Request: fold
Amino acid sequence: MSQLERAARWIDGTEDVAMGGLVNTSSGGAEELVDGVMLAEAFSNVVAFDTEEGLVLFDVSHQLFAPSVIESVREWSNKPINTAIYTHGHADHVTGAFAFDAEAEAQGNPKINYIAHEAVAHRFDRYQQTAGYNGFINMRQFRLPAPAWPTEFHYPESTYRSTSALDVGGVAFDLRHARGETDDHTWAWVPQHKAICVGDLFIWQFPNAGNPQKVQRYAWDWAVALRDMAAMSPELLLPAHGPAVAGTERIRTVLLDTARALESLHDQTLALMNSGARLDDVIHSVRLPADLANKPYLKPTYDEPEFVVRNLWRLYGGWYDGNPAHLKPAPDVEIAREMAALAGGADALANRAEQLAADGDLRLACHFAEMATQAEPENRRAHEVRAAVYDERRAAESSFMASGIFRSAMLDSQEVARTID
Reply:
């Protein structure tokens, strides 16, 4: 089945979206979608355009997958790669550059010209400064056995700030900056093919506009960009994850539904903030409209609306959540010890966590399990209960981000429980 057929089935609801809980899925191989346009599905897709001066790529995938992507590209065309455009600076989109560079050198081809928004270079600088932290995030989020994060990047030779009109071999590429999942995102209008290269601005799942472990996201700007794309009436949508989409109406539908979902969360959150509500009130009140929550391409299997609400609060309201006790709080450990003393010990807190979990209140159960292990870090039963509670919690979650964090907590307590005599 072709990419375009698969996408049509997903949008029309005749087949479940097969992206699972991990946005970086791959069906493998490359496919020419229309004459002169190819998309190679990988951990992060690579889109290629054929021009008289060589190939123009959007993204170069992850370093581990780039060699197989190069093979797929070469099955389609042997032309030198003239230009590679980073849609943004996330590692899964840019670290394949070194493999593409090596291939160009081995073939005796000219060096590839890399183009990106000017903020991509700042992102690479930050990634080098925070490599350890990002490594631990990756370990939790992607269930890796140890922290892992790249520290070497191919910085772009050319950058732009707002828009850039690019012409390579007679094919025009209208590059436009948009804040969305990142502050350095590029999407492109390719008029000759009536195509849009969207990067991660559409990912076949609920937009990654919340992500609790990453830097600021921009839900409103993201929605504006999606509406700008829809206004072009594109006939081909080329994403960085998942299959391409064909057909003006289908493309318009997925773009505007995604925009409306982000706008709804944004407007609800701001309305509550403007009314004086605390963050706790906001995150437990804002909900996605039911008609959007049921869209097959907006399922919260990677990120989720609750996390987007928190990110909107952080953008507009800073880190203070409205609870005065949280402004300069006591250490969590001290609070846990006081709660244990009131309850009759860490075992009592663990027992309560176990009962709450049995009653189906996993949110509250996690609080009691956490306090039990903080009050008595060497209490084996407390860790066993904490592991069991987080095991249930991760199994009940729909988003890959939430389940990854809860799974990490489960594994931590399982390991501690094994070491306690």
In short: The chain has two domains: 3-262, 330-419. The chain has a mean pLDDT of 96. The first strand starts at residue 30 and ends at 34. Residues 3-262 form a domain with the Metallo-beta-lactamase; Chain A fold (CATH 3.60.15.30).
